[in-house]
UniProtKB/TrEMBL annotation:
GO terms for biological process: lipid biosynthetic process. Pfam families: FAD-oxidase_C, FAD_binding_4. Residues 105-286 form the FAD-binding PCMH-type domain. Keywords: FAD, Flavoprotein, Oxidoreductase. FAD binds at D206, S207, F208, T209, H210, S211, T212, E270, G271, R272, L273, G274, V275, I276. GO terms for molecular function: alkylglycerone-phosphate synthase activity; FAD binding; oxidoreductase activity. This is FAD-binding oxidoreductase. The active site is at Y477. PANTHER family: ALKYLDIHYDROXYACETONEPHOSPHATE SYNTHASE, PEROXISOMAL. Belongs to the FAD-binding oxidoreductase/transferase type 4 family. The record marks R321 as: Important for enzyme activity.
Length: 557
């Protein structure tokens, strides 16, 4: 197997040996006990799953086909090994993790191939199409929408085409602020290469450490500083996509009116239109100043109204984020003993000031606002935002909590594995809606989750934040948790489905930045109308008549 490509744990998030610990967060165990009825002191922690316990479906790839692939990429870069195939079977959704830990692998890729460059990708694609095989492009494997798994009923050979060896920043057009990046470059790879010459992509999803630029494009990803840098749909200007027989080339243009946008068709295509080999992205000079300040609002309504006012104002922060009261409570409870919130948790001045203002401490909402640019620009933005926060009854509490949030943001994903170890679900659903609908969506999702918890008969937890503000609306991000009873997957579906249905019933989208895959496909028609689904189906069928590229994702075939 290619040893230059590093993969995440086959059974969980991130790097081997790294996990979540709560011993340094004294409020965490009591919080979990109160909110979901899980006693972390007595609950038995599951042992790390053993790969030997898995029943991995045997590879059905014909030997001659595997040899032909080896002839293209070299013997070291093609594998039918069980562990390698299992690593390429699922993404990292909760459903994926439950299935893989529970030995539920109905279909795995038959062979995994690691091409070195676009020419090899073209040869692999052509060989696979000629052999009537299925090709599933693989970036970092971090998706949480069921975008990677081969269909259980697939009888053809399934090839997982891993872009992991293609991770170079090829070239930077410094006059235009455009960088050509190979599609398999993961966040840290490409940011280090850009930073070395003073540039940044400005795209930092929570999965940054283990996801690729090709995957970001294929799933329409969003990073936490999107208010300044845009979503990947804004950042990705040029594309190279290997299709049977030739490469689809979209030059990096600032804008164009050359008909319906093929660039937009590739964005979010989840591997169905070909293999993205190179993305030309907008890059920016690493800002002189970058800081994140924390604020509190007396209520969720005040926080949302303030975020809208900021988006309508002359201020242009890089991050706008406000947590609802539940998420604020969670953040306080999970803070380390010595954290940016010590001012708050140790009955010091801050809570007293809030109480004196007539705030109900159970309703307060924590907000983070980021500023980037020259020192003068960042200072000016903060001044504009501070005035808006004040006008909406909020107060600033300095940079300490923001620094902590910034440092720890890529550690949070490990929490989900810890909860799974302890027998509990912890997962997310996210959406976007116009400003006028956000409160309604928020309340409807809470009601739907509570109803789902009652159906299962559990005490469940839900919390939310607003992030990624736009002129006309914003993203709402929900995190939910509950202790599994008898049937984890069906209980998870009950809660997840209720939340997704509440989105479409209240004029919100099925996903703001996680894509469609298999998980969100059941609601696609309610999201984009049946005519919209017909257009998408027609696109996939005509562009890929043999259904060779990741079939059954986004829309069912
Ligand atoms: C803990 C956690 C946090 C997350 N946080 C965020 C977040 O903040 N923002 C966000 O946007 N997403 C987030 N995600 C979701 C996920 O990281 C994104 O969907 C990401 O864009 C997937 O990239 P990847 O390289 O891992 O792609 P993969 O998971 O490998 O693939 C995803 C899909 O894209 C296709 N694909 C991948 N590479 C290519 C290519 N080169 N050509 C054609 N198709 C390709 C695959 O076939 C598949 O359909 C998170 C996920 C987790 C588990």
């Amino acid at each position: 197997m290619t040893d230059t490509v590093k993969h995440m744990k086959w059974w969980g998030w991130g790097n081997d040996g790294v996990g979540f610990h709560h011993e340094d967060k004294p409020g965490f165990a009591p919080f979990v006990a109160e909110k979901v009825g899980l006693d972390l002191h007595t609950a038995e922690r599951a042992v790390e799953p053993s790969f030997d316990d898995l029943d991995v479906p045997a590879s059905t790839a014909p030997e001659a086909f595997v040899s032909a692939l080896a002839g293209i990429v070299g013997d070291d870069h093609v594998s039918v090994d069980d562990l390698v195939r299992v690593i390429h079977t699922y993404g990292k959704s909760l459903r994926d993790l439950v299935r893989i830990r529970g030995n539920q692998i109905l279909r795995s890729p038959d062979v995994v191939v690691y091409p070195a460059d676009e020419a090899e990708v073209q040869q692999v694609v052509d060989a696979a199409v000629a052999a009537d095989a299925v090709i599933i492009p693989f970036g970092g494997g971090s998706n949480i929408a069921g975008s990677l798994e081969p269909m259980p009923a697939e009888t053809r050979t399934v090839v997982s085409l891993d872009l992991g060896r293609m991770r170079a920043v090829v070239d930077i057009d410094t006059d235009s602020g455009l960088a050509r990046i190979q599609a398999g470059a993961q966040g840290p790879d490409l940011e280090a290469q850009l930073n070395s010459t003073g540039w940044t992509i400005g795209h930092f999803p929570d999965s940054f450490t283990h996801s690729t630029v090709g995957g970001w494009v294929a799933t329409r990803s969003t990073g936490m500083q999107s208010d300044k840098y845009g979503d990947i749909a804004d950042i990705a200007r040029g594309l190279r996509v290997v299709r049977p027989g030739d490469v689809l080339v979209l030059r990096p243009l600032p804008s164009t009116s050359s008909g319906p946008s093929v660039r937009e068709m590739i964005l979010g295509s989840e591997g169905r239109l070909g293999v993205i080999t190179e993305v030309t992205v907008q890059v920016h000079r690493v800002p002189e100043k970058r800081n994140i300040f924390a604020y509190f609002f007396p209520t969720w309504e005040a926080g949302i109204t303030a975020m809208q006012a900021i988006s309508e104002s002359d201020a242009s922060p890089s991050i706008t984020r406000v947590s609802d009261a539940h998420e604020t409570g969670f953040t306080m409870a999970t803070s380390k003993t010595r954290s940016g919130f010590s001012k708050f948790t140790a009955e010091t001045a801050l809570p007293r000031i809030m109480k004196a203002k007539g705030w109900d401490l159970d309703k307060i909402c924590l907000s983070f606002i980021g500023y980037e640019g020259s020192t003068a620009h960042a200072k000016h933005q903060k001044k504009l935002v501070d005035a808006i926060v004040k006008k909406h009854g909020g107060m600033g509490v300095g940079e300490g909590p923001g620094l902590l949030y910034d440092q720890k943001k890529f550690d949070t994903p490990y929490l989900r594995d810890f909860l799974l170890d302890m027998g509990a679900a912890g997962d997310v659903s996210e959406t976007a809606a116009p400003w006028s609908k956000l409160l309604q969506v928020h309340d409807a999702v809470y009601a739907a989750a509570d109803k789902a918890y009652a159906e299962i008969g559990v005490t469940g937890w839900i919390m939310s934040h607003l992030s990624h503000s736009y002129h006309s609306g914003a993203c709402l991000y929900f995190t939910f948790a509950f202790v599994f009873q008898d049937d984890p997957l069906s209980e998870y579906d009950t809660v997840k489905n209720a939340i997704q249905q509440a989105f479409v019933d209240n004029d919100a989208t099925i996903s703001h930045h996680h894509g469609v895959g298999r998980e969100h496909a059941p609601w696609l028609e309610e999201d984009i109308s049946s005519e919209g689904v017909k257009v998408l189906t027609a696109l996939f069928e005509s562009a890929d008549p043999g259904a060779h590229f990741n079939p059954d994702k986004v829309v069912a075939d």
